[in-house]
Amino acid sequence: MITNWRVIEGPLDATPEDVGMDSSQLNKLDKHFEQLVKQEKIQGASYLVSRHGKIVASRSMGVLNGVTQEGELAPDSIRNLSSITKMFTAISIVKLIEDGKLFIDQPVATILSEFDNPTHQNITIFNLLTHTSGIMPVNGYFNEPYPRQWWGAHGTDDWIRKVLTGTLVCQPGEAYNYSTMGFALLGEIINRVSGISYEDYVIENIITPLNLKRSFFQVPQNLHSEVLAVVQYDIDHLNKETVEGDVRPPKSDSGLYSTLFDLWKVGQMLLNGGTFEGERILGRKSVELLTKRHLFNVPAYHWGGKIKDKGHALGIDLAIDHLSYESIGTYQMEGAGRSAIFVDPVEDLVVTFFVPSIYSWVPLSVLGTKQIIWSSLK
């Protein structure tokens, strides 16, 4: 529990008023987060708000290490992005499509021989990107009491076959079922097609050209004290070294560590049509392919939500609900824990925030935060 409350300011490019936002409304975020921390719903919060390419709010508060209760969460603290890693995977797939090395509805069986059978031969790269492959979704997705495990504790060289074990939960394209392992398979596709590991591909084609100085698949030892941790698993996972010969899926579903600022650069790059500060990551049409809506009238169970129409881009969620504060067409990703990025093309707005919590879902930490930020637009 925090007894000495302190808000840490990050670097800014402009004031909210300079970009048509109301600072008095935006400043309500601090009290909003302070209340959630005092209620012990979150351990802290950090956020970055940018409009028209200018950062107008960057602050943090709370505890960095929720296990030891040590350290302060800073604006540039490093965080495991969890499922936001999938955005980097989707960008990488689209880049390979742009380079003529893949096509969007290409059967996965043409790359991974394990798919060359009557059950899986109709699954395409598009299906994997949109979670419509029918491959068993992430553990607990159906609120099942006894989720199955995918592979042994030490990894196995036939992990793809283990992922494909059993029947499909639906035929390809029939329904949205959030499949973490579907994105592990996409990482393997990137590996096979590019000729280098998934992690190296992301580093060479996204992290390095965008100069993401604090983004890593393996955080250097000297920066471990600057990594946000919520539970003991976060600490153990951070210190876990890759053992030679230990075969595991690529870290393409949930394995990237980064900061709000680095994540903002990726969002701004997409908002700019694929470039950032003169560096081209994708072409404009590739960004359009990545971020436009591809699913219509496709149902999703979604942890009991039973959504009738799960609008989705390519590996990126979309705002399609008229009740949302963000504009229709805003593309967004959230990671367990929780971290988030929202890119609103209508308002030329990029928002990133970390609201770490021991709870899987604290609605006000995400929904309330969005409402305060978007209602500050003049």
Features:
28% helix, 14% strand, eight-stranded antiparallel β-sheet, alpha+beta, globular, 378 residues, 12 strands, two-stranded antiparallel sheet, Beta-lactamase
Helix proportion range: 25-40%
Can you say what the CATH homologous superfamily of the domain at 8-82 and 214-279 and 321-374 is? DD-peptidase/beta-lactamase superfamily
Number of helices: 11
CATH topology of the domain at 8-82 and 214-279 and 321-374: Beta-lactamase
Report the top-level CATH class of the domain at 8-82 and 214-279 and 321-374.
Alpha Beta
What sequence of helices (H) and strands (E) makes up the elements? EHHEEEEHHHHHHEHEEHEEEEH
Helix vs. strand class: alpha+beta
- What is the CATH architecture term of the domain at 8-82 and 214-279 and 321-374? 3-Layer(aba) Sandwich
Shape: globular
Total beta strands: 12
Uncertain stretches? none
Describe the structure.
There is one protein chain. The radius of gyration is 20 Å and the shape is globular. The model has no long low-confidence stretch (mean pLDDT 93). It is built from 11 helices and 12 strands. It has 378 residues and is α+β, with helices and mostly antiparallel strands. Helices cover 28% and strands 14% of the residues. Helix 2 runs antiparallel to helix 11. Strand 2 and strand 3 form a beta hairpin. Strands 1, 2, 3, 4, 9, 10, 11 and 12 form an 8-stranded antiparallel sheet that branches.
